[in-house]
Amino acid sequence: MFGAHLVERSRAVGFTDAFFRADMMSFIQNCTFYDVSQGLISAEAFAASTDLWALMATTNPARFASVTDPVTGIAAPAPCPVAYAQINNRMPATVGRLLAKLGIETNPALQLAGGPMPAAAATAAINAQLPAAYVRTRIANAATTAAEILQQNAMINAVQEANLMMSQQTEDPSATLLGVSAPRRWPS
């Protein structure tokens, strides 16, 4: 039961940092969607990818996405390859926070243990538990890490959210209705 709960919780994970999330939505909408629609990224490869973020790395340099400067908090347009690099630099810390949050949520006894670093203990616990749950349910292989699993799930949910946001921005009622009717999986 615990493994099934871990898989369910990990599949619902989403980027919670407001600036990172906004930058990711901008990148997906302004770079990735066009790359897929124009064949720069194969739609089949995109649908079957086990590492969406790495697949998005090769992007059209003629397009731009808004990226927030982490120091000043000011968003500015950047060419898609530059936007990818800036978001990619922030990805490990963001996924690390997701790991700690999931670890604490799924191992509440660690909060009761006290001590200065329950987040570190929770991250260590989830780093062992999550891959084991995915391997046990035959969703991932033994070489897959907890960070890779969470990053992929967060990317899947980000793509779904960006698609819903795009349908709302273009005032496409059918796409909006389909998106709203689907179960929400982000941010938890």
Describe the structure.
This protein has 188 residues and is mainly alpha-helical. The protein has one domain (2-181). It has helices at 2-11, 18-37, 43-48, 52-55, 80-106, 109-113, 118-136, 146-169, 173-181; strands at 64-68, 75-79. The protein has a two-stranded antiparallel sheet with strand order 1-2. Helix 2 crosses helix 5. The model has no long low-confidence stretch (mean pLDDT 86).
Topology, please?
Elements: H1 2-11, H2 18-37, H3 43-48, H4 52-55, E1 64-68, E2 75-79, H5 80-106, H6 109-113, H7 118-136, H8 146-169, H9 173-181
Antiparallel strand pairs: 1-2
Helix pairs in contact: 1-7, 2-5, 2-8, 5-7, 5-8, 8-9
Strand order of the main beta sheet, please?
A: 1-2
Gyration radius, in Å: 17 Å
Query: What is the CA-CA span between the terminal residues?
Result: 20 Å
Low-confidence stretches: none
What's the rounded overall pLDDT mean? Answer: 86
- Write down the secondary-structure element order: HHHHEEHHHHH
Described by its quaternary structure, the protein is: single chain
**Structural class computed from helices and strand pairing:** mainly alpha
What is the percentage of strand-forming residues?
5-15%
Please give the largest β-sheet: 2 strands, antiparallel
Helix count equals 9
State the share of residues found in helices, binned by percent: 55-70%
